[in-house]
Structure formats: C-alpha cells, structure tokens
Amino acid sequence: MSSTPSVTQEAPPQKSPWRDRIKIPHTYAIILSIVILVGVLSYVIPSGEFERVDADGRLMVVPGTFETITKTPLAPFDIVTAIPRGMQAAAQIVFYIFLVGGAFGVIRATGAIDAGINRLVQKIGKSERLIIPLVMIVFSVLGFTTGMAEECIIFVPIGIGIALSLGYDAIVGTAMVSIGAASGFVGGMMNPFTVGVAQGIAEVPLFSGFWFRAAVFLPILLVAIFYVMRYAARVKRNPESSILYGRIGGVGSTEYAVSEEIPPLTKRRGIVLILLALGIAINMYGVFNWGWFLDQLAANFFIVAMVSGIVGGLGINGSFTNLVEGMRTVVFGALVVGFARAILVVMQDGQTLDTIVNAIAEGISHWPPTLTVLGMFAFQAVLNFFIPSGSGMAATTMPLMVPLSDLLGIDRQVAVLAFQYGDAITNSIIPTSGALMGYLAVARIPYELWVKFIWKLIAAWLVIAALALVVGAVWGVPT
C-alpha cells in the first residue's frame, strides 16, 4: 500500500451537514414524548386484553379473545416511574449490551483488530482488481459478527489513500470501508446489538434464521461491490465523472493525511484475533447446540475480553479500564433500551397495548401478509431517521410488532427481519446516523454529494430486503 499524501493546502470551508442545520429532537426526547403520549392515551383508549398461552416458552396472543375491561388510567407520577421500571424490566438486555460493548472495548484496545485489518489491506492493496471486493468483504464480516459501524471510521483515511493511489476518488475509498461494513450490518446474522436484541424481545431463538439472513446478505454484498466497482471504473476512465471532480477528494487529491497511527500486527495481537474468532465460533455453537441466550453470550465475550487483555499486554488493570471505556461507548444504545421499555410499561399498566394492537389488526386484517410485512418494513425505515440506535429502535417497536404478528399469523421472525432491514439499510443515507456523519467528516465529503452517490444503491437494497420479506411472509423463515 502506498503512503497517503500529506496535506499541501488548506481545505476550503464546507457547509455544515444537514444534521447540524436541521434541529432534530434528541432520541431520548422522542422516546419520552411517546411515553407521555401513551400515558395520556390511557385516559382515552379503552382498556382491554387478549388471552395468552405458553407455546414453546413464548407467550403467544390468542386471536379472537380480545375483551374490554375496566379502564385503568395512569396517574402522572406513575408515567414518570415507568422509566426506572422500564430500566429494570430491560435489565438483561441493557447489561448484555454493556458487557459485550465493554468486551469489544478491551479487544480494540489491544490494537489487534486495527492491526489485522491494516495488514490485510496492505497485502491486497497491491492488487488493483481485488482491493475493492476484498476490503468490502472483510468489513462486511465485521459488520455481521460484531456490529462494527463507528469503529470503522479510523480506516476511512486508509481506504481513501489506497483509492487515490489507484486513480480513484475519495468516495471510492470511503465506500470500500463504510458500505462494506454496512452490507454486513444489513445481513446481521450474528449482530449482537440489533438482531440479538430484537430476537430477545421477540422471544425467538437467538440468531435463528441464520441461513435465511445469509442468503439475503449475499446479494446485498454483491450488489454493493458491483456498485462501488462500477463507479470506480467510471472515475478511472474519466476523472471528470467523479462526483467530487474539482473538489477535495477528486482524483489526484493531495489533501489527506492519516491522522491515526495503526499498530503493527505482532504475535500478541495475532493471538488476540484468534481468541476473538474462537469466541465468536463458541457463541455460534452455544446458541445452536447448547441453547445459549444473552447471559451466556455476554459471559463468553467477557472471558474472551479478559484473556485478550492479558495476552495483548493490557494487564488486569488495563483490561478493566478499557472494559469500562468500552461500556461508555455503548451507554447511549444500552440505556435507550431501558428508556424505551418504559413505553411498554405504561401501555401494560394502562392496559392499552392489546387495545391498540387489536385496533391495528382489525384495520389491516384484510391485507395480505406480504403487504403487512412491507408496511412494517416501511414503518421501521422511517422511524430509523428519528431513532438511529438499532437496539433502541428494537426496544421501541418490537413490543408492538410481536403481538401484532401473532394476531395476523405472521412469523415473529419476519417481524424481526422487518425491523432489521428497516433499521440497517437507511443508516447509510440518513443524516442522523452517527457512523455515516463520522465517515463523511473524516473523508470531507459533503452530505449532499454522498446522497447523490449512494441513493441508487439504497434503492436496490430496499428492493432486495422487500423481496426477502415477501418470501419470508409467504414461505416462512427456516430456523
């Protein structure tokens, strides 16, 4: 890999991204507003309930058993106390996110992941034809196993340096990293922060439907690789066709410098990578053969993190310091799960959840299942603009989608898929996505120009996901 050019001129001022120019309510403010709204609605909406039966360890709604009951409106203070009670109700998921986030914090602190990716990129960077697909494949694997998103920002300057050295532009370098990771995030086969949380709430076996998701992931990734390679080839043939032509990041730009020092791949870091791969493999085996759930997965990741910290030279104190630091990076996503659970607590206390679900079910009961799941998909995609945290959106929407899918005879797994694809795909285009805005800030690509580049790929992904949901609704999702 050739060295990245140093800065030779000062970059002209860029317009602030849309996220800074448009006042978007804070995620917690949106969720609190919903909590208050459903609390107020407990005075208006009749109370009611369905019968529920235990089926294979899951509480299933029994269609046709809805009955209205005595109204139980909530006192204003009860609405507020729903927040700490929501935290308690979601404690297993909240602490699972904290422990897994902390474990990845320890592993990242060893420098193993950064060093391993950097070594691999250096190796394949010498082969122009392989660089784009292989880099995207590597990051996609990290996306569907560890949910890597913001963590990829450090590699954007490296990707840009490689792209410019091969006659491409900064968009190609950014896309190799960001869209590669996004493809895996959409696939989500082993993503602990989205699929893991959603399936936990839906009470379906953890990471079930693996092969169905893998079958959808392949066209998602292949279309993304084709899309980036096609754009790259066009830019190389004619630099003026670059979206960044005449701007920073165009072909031949010299305005970039790698601001982060990537550690070398030592034997210690190599062992850490082996431990991480082994830990993921054990979790997969445990889920499919030992019935492991969130507690066991978190415990295994914790063991891997502690051993990796010692092997990686962090020591006991350093390992726990980085464990806490890793937890700090997922505070937003972890606590928003508990905060969002307050919505469910209020609806359960006011006994309006079943009334709302029954009303929706009656309204769309004449719809075919395919149209219903596509409506769920569209709802999740739109809501992701306001709640870009995947785990937070799962906690907000799945309590409503699960009983609704039961009533309409739709597999809960399909409801999870609708959430998963609605959440993941739009992350690559919405201005409220922290990962996306981080990529663009490092790459110095204006948001509007990124949209011009990416929108056709997003449209293709949405079509693939919609087709997958239709297949799942009609033929089911194999576990």
Give a nutshell description of this structure.
This protein is mainly α and 479 residues long. Helices cover 68% and strands 3% of the residues.
Uncertain ranges: 1-19
**Share of helical residues:** 55-70%
Structural class: mainly alpha
Strand fraction equals under 5%
Whole-number mean pLDDT:
85
N-end to C-end Cα span: 43 Å
Which of globular, elongated, flat, extended, rod-shaped describes the shape? globular
Tell me about the largest β-sheet: 2 strands, antiparallel
- How large, in whole angstroms, is the Cα Rg? 23 Å
The total beta strand count reads 4
Q: How many domains make up the coordinates?
A: 1
Task: Provide the spatial order of strands within the biggest beta sheet.
Answer: 1-4
Order of helices and strands: HHEEEEHHHHHHHHHHHHHHHHHH
Give the helix tally. 20
Labels describing this entry:
mainly alpha; 479 residues; single chain; disordered N terminus; 4 strands
Could you characterize what this model shows?
Helix content is about 70%, strand content about 5%. It is mostly helical and about 475 residues long. The chain has one domain. The protein is globular, with a radius of gyration of 23 Å.
